[in-house]
Task: structure prediction
Amino acid sequence: MEFIWILFAFLCGLSAKLINLPPSIGYLLAGFILHFIGYDADDSLQTLADLGITLMLFTIGLKLNIKDLLKNEVWAGALGHTLIWIVTLVALIKLVAVIGVTQLTNLSIETTLLIAFALSFSSTVCIVKLLEEQGEMRSRHGKLSIGILVMQDVIAVIFLVAATGKIPSPWALSLLVFIPLKPLIKKIINQVGHGELIPLTGFFIAMGSYELFELLKIKGDLGALLAGMYLASHAKASEINKALMNFKDLFLIGFFLLIGFTALPTWEMLSIAAMLCLLLPFKFALFYLLLSALKIKARTAFLSSLALSNFSEFGLIVASLSVEYQWLSKEWLVILALSVSLSFILTNIIYRYSEQLFISKKLIFTRFERKKRLAEDTFVQPCNAPIVVVGMGRVGMGAYSALSKQVGSQVWGLDAERSKIDWLKSQGAQVFHGDGEDRDFWENINLVEIQLILIAVPKVQDAINITQQLKRVNFTGQIAAIARFDDERIELEAIGIDKVFNFYTEAGVGFAEESMAMIDTHQFTAEQTA
Result:
């Protein structure tokens, strides 16, 4: 990558962060500025963007459960939205064309269908980055959004096969051999250890699956996603994901820059792109009504719909393909690039105020909520258990074990990952499935019974989100949390957490105390006195 790209990406990303916007908005701006002053994107930037998307889909797969995609709210929500959106938008475009907008009046029905289809998808890159920055990837609405995005990716693959005539190779059936080979592959990954081979293993599997699927004439990105899902149950899945996180974020900068290099717009193109963005509220409303009809709670449906209310980079792929086959004029490639960019910016800005927006209009949105809830959204609070450990990872499980030895059944654990809860229950732990970042969850349990909540989640943003929800429901007990760095400790204390433990400092203190207990310390006291 040329240094000038890095310079502009850094300056614009930092500027966005300083005004409390996600750096990705700055990267988008950097791409448009570089294009405006005369720079062109080369193959290396495209390679970086492809790497970023491939790693992102692979890491998404590492956190997905195939069963989640079979839920009605996921597949029916995605498919229902796509069909209704296309029919409605085609009718709307034809209606607006009567006004005399140049770019719309000459569109054939086939071209109109392509544009509507391109705009039906939501951006995987934008939403995943947004959820990560907000610490909501593991939340109920985060998982629902990701599930819908994956189903949209499946629809995208079907379209690409149909549009290009690129029929998968007969050898694609050989991929089934990986099912019986899974135990062997897991054993091989177990030998990787915990060092530099961990990220290399992630790269190898992600890129290897991409190339294998391309060789079999299947979309390579889908291969990376399925490879991640294939390994999601492995003990090292979380470790591989963490090792790839920074690489993925770095390479995705290339993707955001690349959007700005698509083309230079005219004022007419910009106005049409802005007009298309006026459709985003309709996209939100359609998602919300569908999810509500599928018995999703009001807050979950609201946050998922708001996150999904943008246009996808896949729209650019559809547009590029359509231009190549002369189904669409080159001007529409620019218009769609602008509308995608504008939707990214709008989503990132509006979503930051999602909680405030929902609270202010809660009475309106809850009118559409179904009385009968899904099993996943119901929770039975354990009686007479005043201590809660939120987040049953390594730190949370350690805290739970220590407390259960002292107070027995007076402590219970909470985690948003159902598979982890099922496993811990099989081990005899008193743990329950629930989303600590969901205000509805805390509103539906008896907080008077709870005296102490230990927040043992790995990301500081997750701890902030949970604490904010507890404050909103007027929790009066004590809250403790963990932090890795002093600035995180200060930030957590500032929002009202009663006790913040520095992860590394407390580990050192505990290590010293446990070690000193192994020897007679009286001799050291006597020597100091002498």
